[in-house]
Design brief:
The protein is of the alpha+beta class. It contains 1 helix and 2 strands; from the N terminus they run ββα. Strands 1-2 form a two-stranded antiparallel ribbon. The N and C termini lie far apart (42 Å).
Length: 58
């Protein structure tokens, strides 16, 4: 684990909470590995949103 301070909220086992915007413009918070860039967190949220949308229409 890094000794440098971070301003992101840290969860258990090296996780971090990220506020994201889903493709339908709703907002949410996801749990990602600490150090994950915001753009990657947004991409993860978009994938999860798409998978959930597919399940709802199936």
């Amino acid at each position: 684990m890094s000794d440098k301070p971070t301003d992101e909220p840290m969860g258990p086992l090296g996780t971090a909470m990220r506020e994201v915007t889903f493709p339908d413009r709703s907002r949410g918070i996801i749990l990602v590995q600490a150090g994950t860039p915001q753009d990657e967190a947004e991409a993860m949220a978009a994938r999860v949103w798409a998978e959930m949308s597919e399940k709802r229409t199936a």
